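// run 5 | inverse folding | seed 20
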């Protein structure tokens, strides 16, 4: 088993672009923590084994947990699982929660990595997205975290925000780089079904940025981060000083992980399972001792596709030898044949034993993936064996 993910499904307010599973009814947090602790204890009994590499508290907004709630969760985790001595222990935080007292407590509780959701340093963007913090709070939170001794700080930024110019995006990048962060995740804004932004887009009130603008901002992102000594190691992720996200590497390398809390996903190497995306369903289900999760066994084809989707958006790319041992000769032959075309045209390259997509093409990998995929019968996605 590689890592543990704990989903804390509460937020102070709803950001207008977000489709993660969360509730703003903070009065239910205590009751939720009771059942989360039960799930952790149960899952711990089902998964005795090797020490874990990572623990990641995400959400939602885990930094909303009270000291007592957090202690109860961590207590259950440490009673149920063991961790490597150098395990990466991350908490996702919103800037408005990161005062010096809170940060000291996190450091004492064993957290060694903070993921801070900044998204933008421009007040207009923050208000448009309905973030709960100001730009000044965002900057101060990173400085406070560094002062509290955190050396592994990652920040989230969003680009492709309607109304944000490329110049403003560059200002965000410059400001992020000037802060003591070891890692940056930058995501292009998406209009997810059911979000306020999606509703506004359908009404014509908010227009997605044109594709050439998105590509330009992606290029600016790469340019500024590479110049500042960051390594671009995955489509959305940059690290300096070798501080790549170990937890995400578990997902990208197809290693097993255990997710707990509503909507959390798990993978045991062959089967994928996910908890119910309902706070009431989760709490009631746990109380009644009923099932709160569903599972599916992945076909070889699905595992091959998952492997390509994740590995080909990293700088390491896909390993043809891994494809052969994990998925069989037919998949390896298909991959070799299709990848050769992209190697010849220059959008893929060979790195050691592996084949990777050029980083400047990561934002537009869909057509390459479509070619590399196979249909149910092990043939190409266009039906050509
Ligand atoms: S704080 Fe994070 S999880 Fe909560 S609504 Fe905003 S983006 Fe979504």
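// decoded
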């Amino acid at each position: 088993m590689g890592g543990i993910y704990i989903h804390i499904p509460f937020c102070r307010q709803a950001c207008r672009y977000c489709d993660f599973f969360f509730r703003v009814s903070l009065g239910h947090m205590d009751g939720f923590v009771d059942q989360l602790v039960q799930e952790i204890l149960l899952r711990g009994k089902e998964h005795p084994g090797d020490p874990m590499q990572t623990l990641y508290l995400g959400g939602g907004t885990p930094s909303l947990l009270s000291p007592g709630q957090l202690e109860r969760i961590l207590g259950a985790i440490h009673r149920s699982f063991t961790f490597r001595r150098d395990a990466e222990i991350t908490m996702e935080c919103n800037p408005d929660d990161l005062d010096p007292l809170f940060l000291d407590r996190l450091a004492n509780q064993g957290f060694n990595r903070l993921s801070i959701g900044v998204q933008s340093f421009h007040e207009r963007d923050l208000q448009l997205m309905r973030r709960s913090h100001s730009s000044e709070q965002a900057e101060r939170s990173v400085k406070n975290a560094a002062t509290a001794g955190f050396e592994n700080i990652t920040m989230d930024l969003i680009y492709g925000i309607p109304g944000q110019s490329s110049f403003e995006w560059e200002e965000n990048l410059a400001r992020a780089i000037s802060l003591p962060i070891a890692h940056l995740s930058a995501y292009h804004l998406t209009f997810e079904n059911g979000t306020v932004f999606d509703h506004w887009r359908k009404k014509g009130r908010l227009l997605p940025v044109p594709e050439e603008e998105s590509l330009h901002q992606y290029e600016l992102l790469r340019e500024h981060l590479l110049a500042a000594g960051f390594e671009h190691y995955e489509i959305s992720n940059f690290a300096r000083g070798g501080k790549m996200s170990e937890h995400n590497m578990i997902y990208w390398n197809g290693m097993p992980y255990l997710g707990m809390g509503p909507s959390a996903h798990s993978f045991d190497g062959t089967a994928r399972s996910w908890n119910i995306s309902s706070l009431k369903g989760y709490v009631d289900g746990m109380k009644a001792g009923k099932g709160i999760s569903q599972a599916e066994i992945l076909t070889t084809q699905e595992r091959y596709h998952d492997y390509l989707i994740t590995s080909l958006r990293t700088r390491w790319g896909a390993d043809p030898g891994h494809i052969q041992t994990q998925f069989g000769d037919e998949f390896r032959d298909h991959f070799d044949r299709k990848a050769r075309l992209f190697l010849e045209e220059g959008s893929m390259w060979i790195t050691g034993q592996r084949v990777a997509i050029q980083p400047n093409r990561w934002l537009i990998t869909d057509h390459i993936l479509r070619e590399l995929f196979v249909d149910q019968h092990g043939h190409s996605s266009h039906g050509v064996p």
